[in-house]
Design a protein that fits this description.
Layout: H1 2-6, H2 14-26, H3 28-37, E1 59-63, E2 66-69, E3 74-77, H4 92-103, H5 115-126, E4 130-134, H6 137-152, E5 156-160, H7 199-202, E6 205-208, H8 214-223, E7 227-232, H9 248-258, E8 262-266, H10 279-282, E9 289-292, E10 303-307, H11 309-312, H12 336-349, H13 352-376, E11 381-385, E12 388-392, H14 401-405, H15 412-420, E13 424-425, E14 435-436, H16 443-471
Parallel strand pairs: 3-13, 5-6, 5-7, 7-8, 8-9
Antiparallel strand pairs: 1-2, 2-3, 4-10, 9-10, 11-12, 12-14
Helix pairs in contact: 2-15, 4-12, 5-12, 13-16, 15-16
This protein binds pyridoxal-5'-phosphate.
Pyridoxal-5'-phosphate is lined by residues 82, 136-138, 141, 164-166, 233, 238, 266, 268-269, 293.
């Protein structure tokens, strides 16, 4: 039975197999749950990203910077809910405020009085005219695209190759396309990423490489007048971290303006990541719509679609059969629980002051990783953005998704299992992911992370060597 669990890692050599065996021996409780629930729940998880072989860990409790699995293993958590938890787990202010809210009810399906204070806070903080609230990033993206199409009366959207914008059909295109299907580097083709998405959707989406305006210009030359929106993460944060170069964001703003195309910044990861602001504010670019989720909610399910008044004000009930508004609705939208969590998070916890030590911690971590890479001759560097950091297993600075595909992502596995087996979740699940430092991490937590890096990086170096010898 163990053998079946090891099969996925055989190509990475005996050291990785030993590490996965260690994982198996520390996590029998998780294995039991996995074996039971995967009969009923595909892959035993409720979000595809949560599954990894041999099986994911199952957790029961979390507090501060720590989280405990069902086998009572304690982990220092640097995943932090894929970055949704810059507040950390069970922040004492949130616990107090949310307990009070639970007693007052968590779902009214009527507007809540808190909207009054909250609306001013949100528009001032993120520099937007108007906004609406939904429950998840995916929903916010769906509404943002609907708004752009309504505003322009056009259907085509442009997205960047390798960006993930959630599970809405129209963006489940070229999120992580196989190289064989993706077309030439300079002229990527759109690739459906899920069964069940109709082919017509693929025809409505054009794909451009990040950090490149040439391909974008070619597409706009040909069919700019049919394009409703360009949707982009201002800093790519789902293929490691890739920063915009050479005024890229300003250049796409200029081009989209020329063709009256709505520029949507997906700030679901970038928003509140480098201080209490958006990447749009930081890079001084003025998109037409932004979407926010994750960190803004302090862990509660909530998202924001915000932007220019002339676009946002299209949302509304139909005035007549002919003049329909843009539909935005949802039973759980702006429920009192999530609203309270967002309000307390933005107003009291994720303040400008709160970020200062975290940014310092993050550069401590980056330096420690890069020293290790040097010491063990590992071809890798760390890219950071605000309170997050990602390992890119490459000698060269990467500037788009195709270059990420050229990196040695297999080296992530010895690193990840090596850290997990020492009680540290070093980052979110998957080599394309990153770590997040929360306001509840301490300097000692960072030191512990760094202490065990040595163990993990030795494993990485040995795996790098094994791969070179066996595969090349
Ligand atoms: C950039 C980006 N956009 C959208 C989403 C979708 O958000 P959600 O998972 O809340 O639906 C994600 C989720 O990871 C994301 O990283």
């Amino acid at each position: 039975m163990y053998e079946a669990y090891l099969a996925d890692y055989e190509d990475l050599g005996p050291k990785v197999i030993d590490e996965v065996k260690k994982y198996l021996s520390r996590t029998s409780g998780s294995r039991e749950i996995f074996e039971k629930v995967s009969d009923y729940i595909p892959y035993g998880v409720n979000s595809n990203q949560r599954y990894y072989p041999p099986y994911p860990l199952y957790f029961k409790n979390a507090k501060g910077s720590r989280i405990w699995d069902v086998d009572d293993n304690e982990y220092l958590d640097f995943n932090m809910g894929y970055g949704a938890l810059i507040v950390g787990h069970a922040h004492p202010i949130l616990v107090k405020e949310l307990k009070k809210q639970v007693e007052k009810g968590i779902l009214y399906t009527y507007p809540h009085e808190l909207l009054c204070e909250l609306s001013e806070l949100v528009v001032d903080l993120f520099d937007i005219d108007m906004f609406r609230i939904s429950n998840s990033g995916s929903e916010a993206i769906m509404f943002a695209i609907r708004l752009a199409r309504a505003y322009t009366g056009r259907d085509v959207i442009i997205k960047v190759e390798g960006t993930y914008h959630g599970t809405y059909d129209h963006v489940l295109i070229s999120t992580w396309p196989y190289r064989g299907l993706a077309g030439p580097r300079k002229m990527p083709v759109s690739v459906l990423e899920s069964m069940g998405v109709p082919d017509v959707v693929e025809d409505l989406v054009r794909i451009v490489p990040y950090n490149d305006t040439e391909t974008l210009e070619d597409i706009l030359d040909e069919e700019g007048d049919d394009v409703a929106a360009l949707i982009i993460e201002p800093v790519m944060m789902n293929a490691g971290i890739i920063k915009p170069m050479n005024n890229y964001l300003k250049r796409i703003r200029k081009l989209t303006k020329e063709y009256d195309i709505v520029l949507i910044f997906d700030e679901i990861k970038t928003g509140m990541r480098n201080g209490p602001r958006t990447a749009a504010q930081e890079y001084r670019v003025d998109p037409d719509i932004i979407t926010l989720a994750k960190a803004v909610g302090g862990g509660a399910p909530i998202s924001i679609i915000g932007g220019k008044e002339e676009i946002m004000s299209l949302i509304g009930p139909s005035e007549s059969m002919r003049e329909r508004g843009v539909v935005h609705a949802g039973t759980y939208n702006a429920n009192p629980f999530s609203l309270r969590s967002l309000y307390v998070t933005l107003k009291e916890i994720l303040t400008r002051e709160a970020y200062k030590p975290l940014i310092k911690f993050n550069s401590m971590l980056k330096n420690a990783y890069e020293e290790m890479f040097k010491q063990y001759d590992i071809e890798a560097y760390v890219e950071t953005y605000g309170v997050s950091g990602a390992i890119i297993f490459s000698k060269h600075k990467v500037k788009n998704f195709r270059e990420i595909l050229d990196t040695n992502m297999d080296l992530w596995y010895p690193y990840y299992f090596g850290m997990l087996n020492n009680g540290i979740i070093p980052m979110a699940t998957g080599p394309e992911e990153m770590w997040t430092i929360s306001v509840q991490h301490t300097e000692e937590d960072l030191e512990r992370h760094i202490e065990y890096l040595d163990y993990a990086m030795r494993l990485v170096a040995e795996t790098q060597e094994y791969i070179r010898e066996e595969w090349e």
